[in-house]
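Suppose you are handed only these lines of text.
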Amino acid sequence: MMQAEIPPPLRAWREAPRCRALNAHALRADGRYVLCWLQQALRADDNPAIDAAILLGNALGLPVLVYHGLREDYPFASDRFHRFILGASRDLAAGCRARGVACVQHVDRAERRERGLVYRLAEVAAAVVLEDQPAFVAQWQAQRLASKSGAAVIAVNAACLVPPAALDRGVGTTAAFRRRHAAARDAWQDWSDESALSGPYDGPLPFVPDRLETARDTDLDALIASLDIDHALSPSMMLPGSRAEVCIRLRRLTDEVLPDYAEARGDPARPEGASTLSPYLHFGVVGPREVMAAIRESAVPAEQQEKFADELLTWREWFHYKARTLAVPESYARVPDWARAQLERHAADPRPEHESLWALVHGETRDETWNACQKQYLVDGWMHNNLRMYWAKRILAMTPDPRTAWATACYLNDRLSLDGRDPSTYGNLAWAFGDAAPGYRDLPIYGLVQTRTDKAMRKRPGGTEWIRAAAARERPTLAVPGAPPSAPYLDETVPI
Ligand SMILES: Cc1cc2nc3c(=O)[nH]c(=O)nc-3n(C[C@H](O)[C@H](O)[C@H](O)COP(=O)(O)OP(=O)(O)OC[C@H]3O[C@@H](n4cnc5c(N)ncnc54)[C@H](O)[C@@H]3O)c2cc1C
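From them, the structure of the protein bound to flavin-adenine dinucleotide can be written out as follows.
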């Protein structure tokens, strides 16, 4: 099918490769505003989706209306996610006001139930600008709006420093991607926020918006307590959702983390060795451009900058790029054929370490190291990179078959981790299930898929003690289904 063209004001934009028309509808000259529907890019500045909406608004002489909504039936909705998201959304509204752009929010709940709100907002919009996200609910919600609404819908990549469309198609390996990305990077480092020529939209709305900008923490807590979501999963004390937390992390990154990044990053007993920026990147409270600008302005040695850039830019953006090429990035089918064949060949092998889903969720298995990993997801909503590798590979031995292992890994990651439901989630899980090169030993359960032991972790000074203490952390008790849901993200019956 021919790709529809983006409207002329965006074609001339230097960031045009970020933009994709999701339908062929023309701009409505009699629209009241340009609607910018944000789902994950919850930041006011350095936000190409808002900039694209402003450019369209300026060309049409219209204001921009930024909308962010949060539903109770968002997959895995819990106090943890709602608190992070609403904290970020509060700052988004304040930031939009500072830019002279109206931002309205809706927290769906019994006494303020709204159905099809985005469609109603789109009915009087000159165009809808939304985020081009390749995974989880955002991608099919965007497609559905584009096919059902009469408004022009334009998707804008706000997640990557280099938009995937600016790179060649068909890049097949991380090494090739690294080369292309490194060559393209410089052209995408700088940006300047667009200025809205019209004042903030203050016309009629089809609903009563929530005024999160002025909400105190206690107001957010009370609102969340009143919702029909999973209250057993508390907000993360380690990762509050706000722009202030991003600023703290950026300062810590340049002053403390990066000078020793190459060494410290691999040691889970030193959580200060990593940036803990991943939840803020997933929910777009910060974008990679701003992170890289902070690093460039610092005195961090080039070697450490490069190591970090390899994680933030090569690996993270590789998984975004790759997800774009897959119809269902969350699916087990993305595990390479050779690895799936190995795992299937061993699917009937005895699994003496099989654990119940309850034991897995709560980090109460017979494997102390695995429990130490899982407690980070359960209690903190984040896990150290080194632990994630062991954690994911071990799930193959702890579940009845490889498909259930995949569903379980996605379920644990996505239900608990604030950075879950991301292209990096499924890309890294695919790596753990066999994206890396085949090993030489044909192992029970794994075949030639490489597994991991906890030997190296335990051998570090204090490693065994750290694992024991981490595995014994106090934890909440959650309601757990009999089996992991296979693809809760694809439930297209959920209205927007
Ligand atoms: C099995 C498994 C599952 C994972 N699931 C997720 C996930 O759900 N969401 C997620 O964002 N990352 C995931 N990762 C990647 C990585 O573990 C986390 O991004 C990292 O631990 C986050 O902590 P940090 O922000 O302190 O990382 P830092 O070391 O400070 O790195 C900075 C940033 O670089 C990016 N990055 C680092 N490592 C990777 C990587 N391997 N792949 C992609 N991007 C990377 C992240 O955006 C991260 O925030 C997973 C890795 C594995 C092995």
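What can we learn from it? Residues 361 and 445 are 22 Å apart (CA to CA). The longest strand covers residues 64-70.
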